[in-house]
Design goal:
single chain, 209 residues, mainly alpha, 10 helices, 68% helix
Length: 209
């Protein structure tokens, strides 16, 4: 939906409304929704126009409504949830993690769990033969992708290809921005104190794409 409203369907009021509602509910249930909201905001700013003000307003209103439990709790509890998100570099057990520790945890603990190379519920860094199978699948997919990219270049810049290429580039930028925003948010927020697997779930659909 976020991809649609920042592209060719920016005039769709119901999509803006649904985007606001879903993002609000997501913000209430899991703050990592910002991983997907951040690219939408950036792409939306690129095409922002005052003629869409009421669409933005509807999305913002439904965002507040969807996340109403979060707002009610924090307004009555000195913004405890927000303080937890940005208030420090400690885990729930009180152990401190530096920015570097969080980055290493993301690369060598969280990411391998997200792509299936290690089990998220164990302390092992390798899942044995299963890891080799997963890596093989990824290498085949990478080789296929490279082959398809080279094949498209050889076909030349026909009109249909140019349209497809523009849409593909837009999609790639959107996905890469989501991955980048996840890495940044994970490293600088309280989520980075636990790289074992549960906070890696936003990566799975993005990496699958």
């Amino acid at each position: 939906i976020g991809y649609d409203v920042t592209g060719e369907r920016e005039n769709s009021l119901w999509r803006w409304a649904l985007l606001g509602l879903i993002t609000g509910v997501g913000w209430w249930t899991d703050g990592l929704i910002v991983v997907y909201a951040f690219p939408v905001v950036l792409f939306g700013l690129r095409r922002a126009s005052l003629r869409h003000w009421y669409r933005y307003g509807v999305a913002a209103l439904l965002f507040v409504i969807g996340g109403a439990p979060w707002w009610i709790y924090n307004l009555t509890h000195q913004w405890e949830a927000l303080h937890w998100l940005i208030g420090g570099l400690q885990s729930d057990s009180g152990v401190s993690f530096s920015i570097g520790d969080r980055a290493l945890g993301l690369l060598f603990v969280g990411l391998p769990a997200a792509i299936g190379i290690r089990y998220s519920w164990t302390a092992q860094y390798w899942a044995g033969l299963l890891s080799a199978l997963v890596i093989t699948v990824y290498l085949i997919a990478l080789a296929y992708g490279i082959r398809m990219a080279l094949s498209r270049r050889k076909r030349g810049a026909r009109q249909a290809d140019r349209i497809e290429t523009t849409q593909t580039q837009h999609s790639i930028r959107f996905v890469m921005l989501a991955l980048g925003s996840f890495a940044l948010i994970f490293v600088v927020s309280a989520f980075g104190s636990d790289a074992t697997g549960r906070y890696m779930t936003p990566l799975i659909p993005t990496l699958s794409i």
